[in-house]
Backbone:
């Protein structure tokens, strides 16, 4: 879709529909996040030849935790506060990451740096309940905290590719690019972002080590699943943004049909991501090496994507200036004498 097909004026109707879309998107993400995590766990069990719970088992565990009484220990007040703050950031990120539609031109939209910073902040807050543990049990929490704190610097090449654009404008710009042609660097950029969701805190082990109980534990599990789904959705948006709906002058009905198609494409992306994440769970690595591999993959893939996309990302003024320097007649010879 070209920018010329976008509406020239932002009406109150489009603003209301955009706000309604963001609200529905947040509800959809919160509903699907535990199902996605349960599905990944079940697929990993199938690949390993083990019997696992159904995909809905994650939601059942969360509901069970919400009705259980909480057992408070020293340090649980800080853990409870950090869990609530992490869930708030996760819900905020769920509203900022496009699922099936982009915000129309004229509405304020977050940049990729802000989205990644919110997700990293939520991950760090989710690590705090494990950090406050006593003795050797806190070691894995410290390692997960350090790995997540280094994730944002590892994403620098990816963030440089977006520049100062907001996320919706960037995705609208790359929508018309072919994934096998000029859009290939952005597919690699999406793979780099997907690395942020891979081995995220060793989700299964992290859930077992988390010392919270009752409603706090249920909220912690829901926030953990929501952060992972946000990373996966963000990676899918960057790798394949052609399925995201954009408002046009044609009216609401074509836009609504495009939203339905975008939702179906989002489910297809989740199927592919679940298979990849389930296969990666079969790779048994110690936590320090797993963190190093994760950060190295994110940085190197982003660096390669930036190098491949650099000719297209260069500003036209810079390209014209470089071309003018190359074609102008030299005023001096090789020895410095006037020709």
Residues:
């Amino acid at each position: 879709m070209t920018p010329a097909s976008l509406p020239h004026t932002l009406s109150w109707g489009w603003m209301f529909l955009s706000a309604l879309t963001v609200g529905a998107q947040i509800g959809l993400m919160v509903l699907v996040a535990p199902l996605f995590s349960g599905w990944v766990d079940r697929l990993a069990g199938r690949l390993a030849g083990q019997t696992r719970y159904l995909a809905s088992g994650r939601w059942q565990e969360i509901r069970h935790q919400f009705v259980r009484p909480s057992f408070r220990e020293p340090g649980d007040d800080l853990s409870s506060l950090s869990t609530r703050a992490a869930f708030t950031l996760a819900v905020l990120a769920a509203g900022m990451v496009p699922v099936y539609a982009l915000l129309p031109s004229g509405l304020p939209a977050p940049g990729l740096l802000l989205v990644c910073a919110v997700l990293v902040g939520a991950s760090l807050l989710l690590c705090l309940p494990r950090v406050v543990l006593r003795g050797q049990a806190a070691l894995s929490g410290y390692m997960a905290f350090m790995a997540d704190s280094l994730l944002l610097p590892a994403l620098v090449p990816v963030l440089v590719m977006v520049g100062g654009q907001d996320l919706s404008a960037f995705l609208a710009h790359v929508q018309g690019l072919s994934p096998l042609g000029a859009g290939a660097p952005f597919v690699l950029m999406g793979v780099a972002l997907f690395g942020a969701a891979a081995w995220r805190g060793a989700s299964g082990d992290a859930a077992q080590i988390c010392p919270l109980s009752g409603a706090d534990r249920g909220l912690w599990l829901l926030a953990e699943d929501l952060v992972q789904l946000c990373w996966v959705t963000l990676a899918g948006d960057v790798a394949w943004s052609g399925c995201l709906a954009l408002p046009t002058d044609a009216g609401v009905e074509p836009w609504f049909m495009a939203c339905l198609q975008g939702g179906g494409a989002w489910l297809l992306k989740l199927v592919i991501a679940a298979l990849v994440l389930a296969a990666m769970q079969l790779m048994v690595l110690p936590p320090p090496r797993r963190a190093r591999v994760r950060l190295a993959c994110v940085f190197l893939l982003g660096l390669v994507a930036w190098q491949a996309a650099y000719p297209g990302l260069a500003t036209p003024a810079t390209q014209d200036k470089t071309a003018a320097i190359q074609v102008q007649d030299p005023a001096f010879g090789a020895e410095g004498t006037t020709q």
User: Anything to note?
Assistant: The chain is about 70% helix and 0% strand. Confidence is low (pLDDT under 50) at residues 1-8, 316-339. The chain has one domain: 12-310.
